């Protein structure tokens, strides 16, 4: 196999260059002379992550599709720490990216299974306040394009950037309690009744009907005419203007149920 370089990184003081080769080796070079100093052995698959420590010139982090994360002392050519990303019942998860914190005391990784891995010193208690599974209820929802070729959310017929802040849900689409909904930017100061999403039944692509978050407010708010946010009010106003424009051309069908064929214009 012809060796190919997949990644390259300079250390913190630029004295060394580390290259990842497709034969799963990491090579440490003297940046001034080009001399090969060390071969770092440990990875079993290709490496696409090389991160230098923010202030310690000896430390380099590597991670790859084999699920291994190594911290190396590149001056000695030795392993300092090793972590294997084993996922119960699913084998290992390939590590796609890693970054050090500015103080160099922590680093975070993301893997092929959608996990965020946080490493560092001390206890993990500060991170226990959030649930294990966090998605926005608008994640993976289909988009469509209107007659002007603008992108719209298929379900609400609104431009995505005009939609209210989303709700936090688990992997099955079930909303989290209100204390977690306040973690979403734009919902920090909302009252409890504004943090309860409206649930409904939605048909999936394979025809299965599941209960999911479908609205941005509660039924009580609909009855009381309350607006949970300024964005909601803007969206309602845009929809009202659109209804007024289309209503003039469709007076004969004003009493018929609306099928959502009208496409709101961009504000």
TrEMBL record:
Residues 241-267 are annotated as: Disordered. It comes from the Eukaryota. Pfam families: WD40. One of its GO terms (cellular component) is nucleus. Gene3D superfamilies: YVTN repeat-like/Quinoprotein amine dehydrogenase. One of its GO terms (biological process) is regulation of transcription by RNA polymerase II. WD repeats lie at residues 1-39, 40-82. Residues 249-261 have a biased composition (Polar residues). SUPFAM superfamilies: WD40 repeat-like (SSF50978). The keyword Nucleotide-binding does not apply. The keyword Glycoprotein does not apply. Keywords: Repeat, WD repeat. This is BRWD1 protein. It comes from Oxyruncus cristatus (sharpbill). The lineage of its organism: Eukaryota, Metazoa, Chordata, Craniata, Vertebrata.
